[in-house]
User: Fold Shikimate dehydrogenase (NADP(+)) from Mesobacterium hydrothermale.
Amino acid sequence: MSEENVPLAGVIGSPIAHSKSPRLHGHWLRTMGLPGHYIPMEVPSDKLEETLRLLPQLGFVGLNVTIPYKERVMEIADLITDRATIIGAANTLIFRRDGRIHADNTDGYGFIENIRQNVPDWDAKAGPAVVLGAGGASRAIVATLLDAGAPKVILTNRTRARADRLRDDLGQRIEVVDWLQAGNVLEDAAMVVNTTSLGMVGKPEMRVPLDGLRPGTVVNDLVYAPLETHFLRTAKEKGCRTVDGFGMLLHQAVPGFERWFGKRPVVDDALRRAVLG
Ligand code: ATR
Assistant:
């Protein structure tokens, strides 16, 4: 393959310096011996559409999208997957040969693959899931759990109206409870997921009382900095099966890489080490 035909992909956002995606895709390209480059690009807001239309002409086959453009790229894209529509945001773009931009959201895929890799016998149908938070990440996770056959999702958010809206958008099998009641529904749960930013470095700790957690419950925190949050540590002490959020970050990158570079990559310890640095 001549250098001019080498596929290019990358990540756009602002700021972009802290994105882990270049390390992640760079590791896969290197270890799989594939031709290609993955480039982080800081794009100013007023140049977003122009950049997206130009990059395919320069040999780009697609992009990851990060803050603050995950919603805006949906207005520019020509085709949008159902899951991106439900979530209201896209994190993966595919530049098609016919010039059209295809937008997808792989957060739900990353979430479920992370759980499956860490808890191989996990079954979404086993019982109700409690989801803490009702932001963008929560939308992806609630939609994915319902798709996977969860009998019920109990949703709770500091701002209740946001949880009510999510229930109205995603339909039956979602029950909204008040944030201050969150501790009271944990004992019914087969799974509990924190989608809020609580517990992240620099943010307040999660204060939901966790006494009701039962041993064996699958407890997942989307936060990955730190890897072990107070929430996960408490759940582990109670005999829960805990899963941190780092694997979701790694798994959500798989579908894009496969589409752009033609081979399915694996998420293993070598990748974890490469990304953690
Ligand atoms: P993301 O796309 O990562 O989900 P987001 O849309 O900003 O980000 O959502 C952040 C989530 O964390 C929301 O559920 C938010 O609750 P509100 O809807 O009430 O804002 C939750 N969150 C952030 N800070 C919080 C805090 N101090 N206490 C409780 N919930 C908090």
Summary: The two ends are 31 Å apart (CA to CA). The CA atoms of residues 8 and 37 lie 5 Å apart. The chain is about 35% helix and 20% strand. The longest helix spans residues 21-32.
